[in-house]
Amino acid sequence: MDLHTSIIELIDLRSFSNLWFWIMLALLWSSASHWVLGIPYDLVLRARRRGGQHEVDLADMVRINVGRLLYISRVSGLAMLSFGCFILSSLAVVGFYYRYEFAQAVFLILFPMSIIGLLSLSTARALEVEDLTRETLYKRLARHRIYVQLIGMLSIFITSLWGMYQNFQLSPLN
Asked: Which residues cross the membrane (predicted)?
């Protein structure tokens, strides 16, 4: 086996049969469920259990990250939404109409992540409007994390079903 063949096999664009795609997908959803609104969930648990300075740190991080998300959405939200819809619709057409597997894989990653982005924006707006008590904050962040995990499980399930279907279609046994 020469160097050229090794490189081509390493950078294989047949995503659903590539181990690196599945590792990246698992890491992506693992980190998405750990970082709730940009706040590590272990900080939320620590603040709930120990209180004191951990609660102050959590409140500060929530205030900073909520303000950051809302500022970005107010300044460039419409442009980001337009660009995101363009990218997602382009990936969907190229992937599913023209049957390009790499575009399918990227779409199956980016579409659920865009839903997570909208959910994060909704949670940030709710946290800005609500009168934040400690328990309200903990419940809101825990609920957001559960929604992210549910979307992640559904996304991984659909992606794995579609990946198996694609691999069966390209199988030499067909």
From this structure: 20-41, 78-98, 104-127, 147-165
